[in-house]
Amino acid sequence: MSIYTLAIETSCDETSAAVLQDGRTVVSNVISSQVPIHRKFGGVVPEVASRHHIEQIMPVIDQALVDANLTLDDMDHIGVTYGPGLVGALLVGVSAAKALSFAKDIPLIGVHHMEGHIFANFLLHPELEPPFLCLVVSGGHTIIVHVTDYESFQVLGQTRDDAAGEAFDKIARVLGYPYPGGPHIDALAKEGNPDAIEFPRPLLEKGNFDFSFSGLKSSVLNYINGKQQKGESICHEDVAASFQKAITDVLVDKMKEAAHTLGETKIALAGGVSANSGLQRDLQAMCEAEGLTYLTAGSMLATDNAAMIGCRAYYMAQAGKFSNYTLNAKPSIPLGSDLWKGNQHG
Ligand code: KG4
Ligand code: ZN
Questions:
Q1: Most CB contacts within 10 A, which of 35, 102, 320, 335?
Q2: Which pLDDT value is given to residue 61?
Q3: Is 116 touching ligand 1 by the criterion CB < 6 Å?
Q4: d(Cα 22, Cα 79) in Å, to the nearest integer?
Q5: What is the C-alpha to C-alpha distance for residues 314 and 90, in angstroms, rounded to an integer?
Q6: Total number of domains in the chain
Q7: Which domain range does residue 38 map to?
Q8: How confident is the model at residue 204 (pLDDT cuts 50, 70, 90)?
Q9: Does residue 45 fall inside a structural domain?
């Protein structure tokens, strides 16, 4: 008998619901994006996001069930992102999941959004088993995680200031491209020269797996401002290619060092920035040169989606990690936290 997971994701600007069969088969994955709505503001407006989640949540869940040709009665558990993210946005998903769970007596599972991103790799690679090393790069996070089994995640390093995606978005905005900027920088970089402009590579000390991108971001912004003040033209393609190469060099270098330090041979990418073609290419090249196995990232499951949340929920169910009805939306949660339990933290 198959185990069916209904998954819900509303942490930022995508309202998403999915149905999974036995944790690794995506039966349906509906994503209603608010990107066009937030674009005119240059970024996600939390209050606007919450309102749109409220409008979309039930139709999106219904659609996921219709696409799967199943009903709520077929679901064995409901997994929902409870953080980190925008608290008002998260609340919509958590409230919907709790209501359906209570009304239909279906066990509830609170899922950490970044653990969901990591688990997207299990959907992309049906044969993948822990351990592996994962670089999680999104709009809000940049983390190197050692996934030692389905329930243990060791954070080796993370950003001390800006997340990688944040830097991509900021530089794109200053160059005049709409939110989210990452895909625009990616497209421009393909036409530019990565060696045209020397931007800093903030590697920090050896043996330290933390990142810092605010200096790199400022350096790119100073370059753009300097050119504008002098009335000189800016080659967007070269700026994009040089910036992308600088950030990618840092990420790839840290992953190489982390792999050697731990003796880990499998390398994965996760999070929205994992859709970046330059990062994928350079990480793959490093893995080939170092004799490591590179787990291909897939653009479809890179950005926010409920399927990855469903995969994580399935493994939490296997481990007996069910939430009670005090589960609450949490804007920030460390990886591996037990706040999914609800109880006194609710
Ligand atoms: O994981 P995600 O969908 O949402 C968060 O949890 O933050 O990541 C969104 C981030 C944005 O900063 C967006 O610009 C970036 O992922 N992104 C990219 C690309 N596609 C999305 N950054 C660089 N290159 C891309 N191709
Ligand atoms: Zn995300």
A1: 335
A2: 98
A3: no
A4: 13
A5: 20
A6: 2
A7: 4-118+302-343
A8: low
A9: yes
